[in-house]
Amino acid sequence: MSSQSYDLKKSSLIKEFNEKKKEGIIALDKKTSNLFRTRENIKKARLNVKNFNEVIAIDKEKSVAEVEGMTTFETLVNETLKYNLLPCVVPQLKMITIGGAISGIGIEASSYRYGLVHETVLEMEVLLGDGRIVKCTPENEFKDLFFGIPNSYGTLGYILKAKIKLVKANKFVEIIHKRYDNSENYFKDIETFCEKKEYDFIDGVFFNEKEMYISLGKFVENAPYISDYKYMKIYYKSIKKNKKDYLTTIDYIWRWDPDWFWTSKFFFMQNFIPRLFFGKFMLNSKAYIKLKKYNEKYKLTKKISSINSIIGIKNTEKEPIIQDVGIPIENCAKFLDFFNHEIKIKPVWMCPTKIYNKNNNFPLFDLDPKILYIDFGFWDSVKTEKEKGYYNKMIEKIVEKLKGKKSLYSDSFYEKNDFWIIYNGKIYHKLKKKYDPGRVFLDLYEKTVLRK
């Protein structure tokens, strides 16, 4: 793709934007979303950015990719691997977009080396609320926007293009799965592995108090065998079985995608017959996202509950617990103990991350550069007779108590004052006033917490 084609798209978009902003609040009309927030419909003008989905250029010598904001990581990885390169951090699911991972929070098993997705961004072009498109870098006049975009979720502006750093990749990844039965030893060893930096990838899974694993991945040029978890075999189940494993690099990058980690069970895709007959086209995050959107559009879950009530089947109330939270390493055993006793969801994904460049500060998701954090990812629901959000609120309180940070891609229940303390409201409001003074976009609290 040429930069000229991108410039034509920008010109067309500005014209559309100037028309749409007359209608009020603007949101994006796009093909994919990895947000899990339940909202009543808010009247918004939809800006069509679907065609901002291409890789503009790969600079092999400088190890840099220039890519449009709505490009999925699947598209980008397919292109970079032609040059034996990868983005420093590739989020776990194919349909996550570049812009979404930068303005939200993107993490993966290389994050202990390179931090979160936004930490290896070199520059961005951002559409502002007044219709301008500005280029922001860590040094230029828009550097406050550059550092303010991560965790802003499109409330300061929309990323149309980004330049991101790439790293060299070999053909295969060797994985070692180490089992633990004690959380104190588990987190101690994760910290040691991260300090030594002998591996390219580190993540882990908690199955129960006596069975948790650290998975250590390393690029290799040759492999004695290659496992395949795209069809009948399930990656997360293999962790218990195999002390060592080998995957092609692309299969390693997308190892969690076919089963959406382990949530494919909600679509019956971990049962033999459905997997055999429907796995070829169902085992990918794109299919699951489509089903999720279909359910939201037609309210299928609510309709099933209504039918059950009519025919006398008791509906069990459930509270969705879909979150990622980052906890300082010294408090991880405490958090896991709380989670195991109070929430009781299993499995739990665990992924270490540490600030990549100690001189950079991203104020809306400020982490201590001296500390290793562990991201806990859990995606399920719990039976409840409590008020709405009871368990999610418990999680929010313990994360704050343990000096952690919660991602905002899913439902949040913070009180307004608490929210702005946690997510640096003073700086956010200065940025909002400067870059979206007409409030063309929702603010961060309205977008990530409010339900109306």
Protein model, in words:
- This protein is an alpha+beta fold and about 450 residues long.
- Among the domains are: about 5-170 and about 430-450, Uridine Diphospho-n-acetylenolpyruvylglucosamine Reductase, domain 3, CATH 3.30.465; about 170-285, no CATH class.
- Helix content is about 35%, strand content about 25%.
- The protein has 16 helices and 16 strands.
- The chain has helices at about 5-20, 75-80, 100-105, 110-115, 145-150, 185-195, 235-240, 250-255, 270-280, 285-300, 300-310, 330-340, 390-400, 415-420, 425-435, 445-450; strands at about 25-30, 45-50, 55-60, 65-70, 85, 120-125, 135, 160-170, 170-180, 200-210, 210-220, 245-250, 320-330, 350-355, 375-385, 405.
- The chain has an 8-stranded antiparallel β-sheet, sandwiched between helices. Strands 3, 4, 5, 6, 7 and 8 form a 6-stranded antiparallel β-sheet that branches.
- Helix 12 (about 330-340) runs antiparallel to helix 13.
- The radius of gyration is 22 Å and the shape is globular.
- The mean pLDDT is about 90.
